[in-house]
Amino acid sequence: MGLRRSSFFIFSTAGAALWAGTWLVVGAIFYQQINGVLVTVTEFGKTAVFVICLLLAAYVIFRWWQRYRIKVFAKQTRITPKELAELLNQEKLPLIFDARSSLAKNLDLERIIGARPLDPKTLAETIADIPFSQVMVVYCSCPNDVSAVQVARQLKQRGYTQVRSLLGGIDAWRAEGFSVEYYGSAEGS
Q1: Which one, of 88, 90, 142, lies nearest residue 120 by Cα?
Q2: Which segments of the chain belong to CATH 3.40.250.10?
């Protein structure tokens, strides 16, 4: 990318020194607390190691369970770009929400035609006057459509029954050759 080897070596060395130095400083500041923890672990021996391993295993299982539930929910609510295009040809149009972050929207000004910007932090205000039976599709541009799935889940929890997340997000929509528009080119943006 245009960085000379000597510059790379200097920055790499500085970064490694900063990283290692940070932990040395933390160790120097908290050495008494660290020593106390090690003495306590030594006193309890196998029991302490067992409890630590048990807590670690519980944490891993909890995180796996959360991920599994989100995957199951995502599979149940996914809609493909082709299915969304078919919905857009029906008489009753779905509401489409762009759940990408502000940074992502600033970097990529395109959106699906008619999509409304949605900030998950202001979800309640955004959906206040939308009927619970309204068909809604949420999309984003993140891996595994995480933001769209999370917003769809929040909408389902609030009682909305017709909520879907777009499989592949806006990137899949464009890859299928469907139309997009730029923010600011449509009324109400």
Answers
A1: 142
A2: 76-182
Which two tokens mark 41? 């672990």
Give the three-state DSSP class for 17.
Answer: helix
pLDDT digits (tens, 9 = 90+) for 115-158: 999 988 888 888 889 999 999 999 999 888 888 999 999 999 99
**139 forms bridges with which residues in the sheet?**
98
Which value, to the nearest 10 degrees, does the dihedral of the CA atoms of residues 110, 105, 152, 63 take? 130
Q: Which CATH number fits domain 76-182: 3.40.50.970, 3.40.50.720, 3.40.30.10, 3.40.250.10?
A: 3.40.250.10
What single-letter DSSP state applies at residue 160?
A: -
Helix axes 5-29, 31-44, angle to 10 degrees: 70
The HSE-up count of residue 57 (CA atoms within 13 Å, CB side) is 6
The structure tokens listed for 5 are: 């080897």
Q: Amino acid identity, residue 142? A: C
